[in-house]
Amino acid sequence: MLQERVSNDQPTRRWQDFVVPQRWESFTEEDHSVWDLLFARQVDVLGTRVVSPFIEGIDLLRLSHPGIPEVAELNAILEPRTGWRTVAVPGLVPDDIFFAMLVERVFPIGNFIRKREQLDYLEAPDCFHDLFGHIPMLAHERFAAMVQHVGRIGLAAVESGEAWRVARLYWHSVEFGLAKEEEALKILGAGLASSFGESLFSLENKTVERLPFSVEAAVNTPYRPDAFQPRYLVSESFDKTIADILALTPEQLLTL
Ligand SMILES: [Fe+2]
Fold first, then answer.
1. Which of 33, 48, 98, 190 could join 134 via S-S bond, C-beta 3.0 to 4.6 A?
2. What SS3 class is residue 89?
3. Radius of gyration over alpha carbons of the chain, in Å?
């Protein structure tokens, strides 16, 4: 997940320096059983509430296998398909590093999982959020291209000191976006797809605001990193979100 605050005081650092071994063998039986519990619960709650490429990605990447996925095994399926691969990181990475990873089609995965006592509470995104929420969509060719493009405009925005603009765009699409699919309201974003409580809340709460998505609306809509969102942006379609973001240039982003 994107870290909210920008820390760009070390321009020469490399994204590779933030990568750590996943150390899959160090996950305990309890860790794996927490994953299985989260996975079963989330697949059940999502049902058909999520855009169809997400479900296709779950199947394609064989994420329903029991236990926390091993990054190398996942990459063996993902990389030949869309050129994306995952790497383990110890927690949130700075914005410039995150966007530099996206440009290279590298997605960072937390190398830890929440405890059973914290199934619904997270101080930082763990491997369930990162792997279950984000990776299925990266098996979709056009969505995968869109996320790489977010990396490109993100790096440019960081360099201009305007990272907040791309942070909002990312938040209202890749993390907490909703999208219509054959007139039905569906979950698009990873933050929603991986959240038991907010997945239902975002679709069914009667008082929360749901406004039309556009790149301009996203950039001009603040968000809450610490609570359920007070408003969601709804895209006309999954494909429209992709097309709109792919068409955005770094220069345009700064003028919205
Ligand atoms: Fe995320």
1. 190
2. strand
3. 17
The whole-number pLDDT of residue 120 equals 86
Task: Show the tokens assigned to 225.
Answer: 């990193």
CA distance 17 to 152: 20
Average model confidence (pLDDT) across the chain: 93
In this structure, whether the domain defined by 15-245 belongs to CATH 3.20.20.30 is answered with no
Question: How far does residue 135's CA lie from ligand 1's centre (Å)?
Answer: 10
How far lies 127's CA from each of 6, 75, 114, in Å? 22, 15, 8
Yes or no: say if 138 and 99 are a contact pair by the CB < 8 Å rule: no
The residue to which tokens 């990266």 are assigned? 138
Active site residue 194: yes
Q: Tell me how far apart the alpha carbons of residues 188 and 241 are, in angstroms, rounded to a whole number.
A: 10
Query: For the segment 208-251, what is each residue's pLDDT rounded down to a tens digit?
Result: 999 999 999 999 999 988 889 999 999 999 999 999 999 999 99
* Per-domain residue ranges of the chain: 15-245
Q: Going along 60-217, which residue ranges are E strands? A: 85-89, 106-110, 178-181, 184-187, 209-212
Residue 6, classed as helix, strand or coil, is coil
Residue matched to tokens 């071994």: 21
| Known catalytic residue at 25 | no
For residue range 156-185, list pLDDT tens digits in order: 999 999 999 999 999 999 999 999 999 999
Q: Which residues make up the environment of ion ligand 1, defined by Cβ < 5 Å?
A: 1, 190
